[in-house]
Design a protein that fits this description.
Number of strands of chain B: 13
CATH class of chain B: Alpha Beta
Distance between the termini of chain B: 13 Å
Largest sheet of chain B: 7 strands, mixed
CATH superfamily of chain B: Class I glutamine amidotransferase (GATase) domain
Strand order of the largest sheet of chain A: 1-4-5-6-7-10-11-12
Largest sheet of chain A: 8 strands, parallel, barrel
Strand content of chain A: 25-35%
Shape of chain A: globular
Distance between the termini of chain A: 15 Å
Number of strands of chain A: 12
Number of helices of chain A: 11
CATH topology of chain B: Rossmann fold
CATH architecture of chain A: Alpha-Beta Barrel
Low-confidence stretches of chain A: none
CATH superfamily of chain A: Aldolase class I
Oligomer: heterodimer
Radius of gyration of chain B: 16 Å
Number of domains of chain B: 1
């Protein structure tokens, strides 16, 4: 039986990992390579690595990505500043298994198709950042700064149609708050697409990991709980397991 | 005696990851598109991500399709991973229409079908099992139902009797690996499967040595 994945999200700023709250105020939580090694040793099922400076600096930090990939042998979804097929090529060359695309999708959905044709649908991850505004879930891009005139659901559907093989669903309202996931949003998206949906934003403890899976998520992503409250992947997995969720236990 | 490991580069694939996973196991290793150079290898790893049709195009472009057939005939071990495994078969349906594979083993590659609320791609860790597992050398000392990392939308159906292992995809058994003589293959990614993946690769690189 397919196991439910636990996926740490690492946001890169230079050579450091940072943690944000509602996509703002990045605080350094450690060195990138050390983080990758630690999560790998603790048997994370996969890692998502996003360079939050890549867009602003207009470059993919190939050198660092290569060093990160070489520090583990586990599945890596890598993104940040991905605009062209050449950017995607660079990430695959550096050890990415999947590329994470966010902002570029809204102006150029064809990029997803291009990547899917070249590397397969399974390698295209659409990062869907969502802000709840007046009760509506709207899609947001450019690190949370640009609210698009497209609902989260419409964005999810068209991304899958364009070639996304997975969605990372992130609630900006809840990011870094540890108040629990937006289960209504999770249900809305996971009920309406048939690719895996990885959910991030708001995890405050192992109980949230169980409820988000029961709401329809395929995998649990988190950052804060690992850094601020020291929750470990192993204790989360044990808790999920006793609650009837199939996980990979080593 | 030192062993030389060649990784086939046909323009698609996670070559970096394969090289990274075997770097601690073997010193003499190389990645190449050159049939002549690859022919000198004692072991061949044939990895891949991407679509079946593009993969075959790449193989033909470098004459690697003929190379692999000759290499297999020489009796030296080959390990196909994911798309590499799929391209070993007779034909595949990814990339529009039907595309001829390498035909090293009879079988076809079709898209996974949506059943029991399945999500496609099949993405994540899943168990590998089957009565033949114990007889396939790459699984030596690896427990039944060990978890490996999968990421694929197409799967292989074999029409030839060979030793094989399975994985459950929402209630359906799909083929997740096989052995035909010196030909080995996995649908999952050992190079991404942490310590159990390294163990499998180590087993592969020990074939014919003990």
């Amino acid at each position: 039986m397919l196991k439910t994945r636990i996926i740490p999200i690492l946001l890169l700023k230079g050579n450091s990992v940072v943690k944000t709250i509602r996509f703002k105020d990045p605080r350094v939580v450690g060195d990138a390579i050390t983080n990758v090694k630690v999560f790998s040793n603790r048997m994370a099922d996969e890692m998502v690595i996003v360079d939050i400076e890549a867009t602003e600096k207009g470059r993919i930090n190939e050198n660092l990505i290569k060093r990160l990939s070489a520090s583990c042998n586990m599945p890596l979804s890598i993104g940040g500043g991905v605009k062209t097929i050449e950017d995607v090529d660079a990430l695959f060359r550096s050890g990415a298994d999947k590329v994470v695309i966010n902002s570029e999708f809204y102006s150029n959905p064809g990029l997803l198709t291009q990547v899917a044709n070249k590397y397969g649908v399974q390698s295209v991850v659409f990062s869907l950042d969502v802000k709840k505004i007046d009760g509506r879930h709207m899609s947001v891009s450019h690190s949370g700064s640009k609210i698009n005139d497209v609902t989260a659901l419409d964005a999810a559907r068209s991304a899958v149609q364009a070639g996304a093989g997975e969605i990372i669903l992130n609630s900006i309202n809840l990011d870094g708050t540890m108040k629990g996931y937006d289960l209504e949003l999770v249900q809305l998206i996971s009920d309406n697409v048939d690719v895996p949906v990885v959910v991030a934003g708001g995890c405050g403890g192992k109980e949230d990991c169980v409820s988000v899976i029961n709401a329809g998520a395929s995998a649990v992503a988190a950052g804060s709980i690992f850094y601020w409250i020291g929750e470990s992947i192993i204790t989360i997995k044990k808790y999920m397991n006793i609650n009837g969720i199939s996980v990979r236990i080593i | 005696m030192s062993k030389k490991v060649g990784v086939i580069d046909y323009g698609a694939g996670n070559l970096f990851s394969v090289d990274n996973a075997i770097k601690g196991l073997v010193r003499d290793r190389f990645v190449s598109s050159d049939p002549e150079e690859l022919m000198n290898a004692d072991y061949i790893i044939f990895p891949g991500v991407g679509s079946f049709s593009d993969g075959m195009k790449g193989m033909k472009k470098y004459g690697l399709d003929e190379f692999l057939k000759n290499y297999v005939a020489s009796g030296k071990p080959v390990l196909g991973i994911c798309l590499g495994m799929q391209m070993m078969l007779t034909e595949g349906y990814e990339g529009g229409g039907v595309h001829q594979g390498l035909g090293l083993l009879e079988g076809t590659v079709h898209k996974l079908t949506h059943i029991n609320n399945s999500r496609i791609p099949h993405m994540g860790w899943n168990d590998v099992y089957g009565n033949d597992m114990i007889d396939i050398p790459i699984f030596k000392d690896i427990e039944l139902k060990s978890s490996y990392y999968f990421v694929h939308s197409y799967h292989a159906t074999l029409s030839e009797e060979v030793k094989k292992v399975y994985t459950d995809f929402y209630g359906i058994d799909i083929v997740s690996g096989f052995q035909k003589d010196n030909l080995f293959a996995t649908q999952f990614h050992p190079e991404k499967s942490q310590s159990l993946g390294v163990k499998l690769l180590k087993n592969f690189l020990n074939i014919g040595r003990n």
